[in-house]
Amino acid sequence: MKNLQDTTTLHNGVNMPWLGLGVFKVNEGSEVIDAVSTAIAHGYRSIDTAAAYGNEDGVGQGIREGLEKADISREELFVTSKVWNSDLGYEETLAAYETSLKKLGLDYLDLYLIHWPVEGKFKDAWRALETLYKEGRVKAIGVSNFHIHHLEELMKDAEIMPMIDQVEYHPRLAQQELHEFCKAHNIQLEAWSPLMQGELLNHPLLVEIAAKTEKTVAQVILRWDLQNGVVTIPKSIKEVRIIQNSQIFDFELTDDDMQRISQLNENRRVGPDPDNYDF
After folding, report:
1. pTM for the complete prediction?
2. pLDDT digits over 139-173, tens only?
3. Domains (range + CATH), the chain
4. I need a labelling partner for 125 at 20 to 30 A (CA). Which of 92, 132, 208, 230 fits?
């Protein structure tokens, strides 16, 4: 992990950048277009959106503008979207994929995820993802917000194992048991809300480590993610923050710092618990 283009290799051999831009709650239109194109221009090679975010059109426009600014090809980007709960079914998920592709203006996605583990529905959606994968329409498939028991249930019947589980992950929610399970099954863990929606930015321990490393608290947290082997997708719409969030490849946290940050875990969420989410 030496630079922004560094990747982890998923269990099917596909390379995924360790760091990307998330666009949850980024408004459709100029806000998301500018954020995405700015990130790509500054070296980001991974963009994460979802049907539920309502901004796939703008993300697509931002990708086109970003590719032009950076003078790179589409193949150099890793683009993720997710199927929403109301579209979880075999035919429904296939149709949802086509809708997302059309909005994004792309020929394929690098990663397609089931957004939430809706009981009784996610297995049919997974079959659709397997079909898309076998047909070469998507480079990798995975899930989001799946606990261990959801993964176990999915894996009972799956022909293809998930390559990713994207979950809420930050120092207050270290998800150690889930992380160990994913490692044991070659599933790459990915963090959403890595900065806990800003809640951790004034924590004394993190402020102390940031001062020592001459980095921001956000950079310390994102570096903690990477050194734990977790892909991360911080969200920002401000150019200065987009740049800062990417400047985490020129320093390392000590083992002691890593351990102290991990001890902040309280199993506390800022988002819904997948077991209690009102689907």
Report:
1. 0.97
2. 999 999 999 999 999 999 999 999 999 999 999 99
3. 14-262 (3.20.20.100)
4. 230
